[in-house]
Design brief:
Distance between the termini: 66 Å
Largest sheet: 5 strands, antiparallel
Strand content: 35-45%
Radius of gyration: 30 Å
Helix content: 10-25%
Number of helices: 9
Amino acid sequence: MGSKSKRGQVTIFIIVAIVLVAAVGLYFITRSSVSQNASVPTGLQPVYNNFLTCLGDYTSEGISVLESQGGYLYLPDFEPGSQYMPFSSQLNFLGNPIPYWYYVSGNNVQKEQVPTKDGMETQLAQFIDEKISECNFKNYYEQGFGVILRNPKASVSISDSSVSVDLEADLSISGKNETVILKSHSITTRSDLGTLYNSAITIYNEEQKNLFLENYGIDSLRLYAPVDGVEITCSPQVWNADEIFDELQNAVEQNTVALKSFGNEGDYFDLNLPVGQEVRFLNSKNWPNSFEVSPSDGNILLANPVGNQEGLGIIGFCYVPYHFVYSVKYPVLVQVYSKSGEIFQFPTAVVIQGNNPRESLNVTAVENIVPELCQHKNSEVQVNVMDKQGNTVVADVSYECFGNTCSIGKTSESGVLDDSFPQCANGYVIASSNGYKTAKYLFSTVDSGSVDVLLDKLYTKPVQLKLDGQNYNGNAIVNFISDDTTKVVAYPSQKTVELSEGQYKIQVYIYKNSSLTLGATTTQQCVEVPRGVLGVLGLTRERCFDIQVPEQIISNVLAGGGTQNYYVLESELNKQNSMEIDTESLSIPKTIGELQNNYLLFDTHGLEVTFT
């Protein structure tokens, strides 16, 4: 296959190092430009300049997070994967969760969550609103200055080479018999966020249209795994699936890293993408993946010979035909680099089914495309949004009908929105607001009408695990599963969870270090082969092959935990306290049988949940 057989020589570890170095330099690159405000007295100007610098720093911080998290500051709801589809809705990269732009859910539904530029602007504005009150004026307080900041409301505009922020906020600065009140504040931060995002969208659309990542994956599959062919031999052909998958994973990892946006003519790894920036593609065998093959017997692939069966020996030779069907799924992280050192990254899932690439989506990730349904709004509907205590809530309202979602508008301070909706039978009114759980209400808009939407308030609660009544700070996974969401806490690095009132299935898995060793095993495969000269008489004899499975070490084992159905009351959540979950320990298994027994015992163990 010529140059196609070359593996990439660059490793993922070099790329990770580049990312970390670039991140350090990013702060110095994306500095904000501010100007002196002529209306500020000279004696108060240093205090105001400090405020503008703080505004610029938080803007740069938000830009950095947007670029590192695929265009999201606030992550979409987490959706776990399954044994069938290994992808969750987020890729964990160096401890940083990044939403997939394309993935396949655990129940085999193709999904996209590509951010729009408008969405990034909205999230960055929200981030600035939340952070600006944390600006540090301690040195000026010590000098006798007074600073009061009220009612911040930011608006953000992202262009190709800069990000502009207009902040409306009542800022009062006083000191040395002078006082000034300022209401409007503006900065412009140098950043390639807009250009990098546009290039990322272009690359994503190319992948969705041409599936070039899947096609490279299929090349690796056919180079490093038995797919189909014929061997001239009278002995059965036997392959170890674990060894095949290990070699295939290494090939995918190295060849993915070798891909480039542009290169020399004839370079197999040159994608010739229509973007002006350098692009890197990363994959790691340690990321969630799935490799399946059929037909197989456990981890053994076996192809039997033709020609040694009774009545066929007269043909004078034997041959072994084989055809194996693979399903391969793995993530690829796409990184777009600017000359200034900024990096925008997003992950996408690569799916190969039955030795072929998945079907292309019939949609593209081009922002501001309005579905046809949303262009015909002719039913007047009043939406009233409030919490369960009857307090009005300012919320964003949209309408979902048969897979299309139309943005309608935002409620007023009184929690009311009067607007036109597209006509639809059995669609959903969706209301979302920061600090509340998004609510969906079934509502037909064939005729005009009104609908009341109740939002459950979200509370961030500290979680303290106990093991056999004693505080536990070792490794654990805690799941809070409700009808529509799943919250996952990776304990002890995470010790908080965001919950609303409702029924949850709480699961706690306690893991401890282990040196459990699964010894090497040898299984024997016996087949009938011809006896005598060319097997002309059809006589056969049994020939056996030893198939070895190497020794394996399990370093982490289930050593405690349980499951409990629990209805969380809002009265428990709004207390200023933490959630304590007490569970029972299990013996650290020393054999594979004891490990299996621990999983059986896990299902019988309950949990004690209290708020203290």
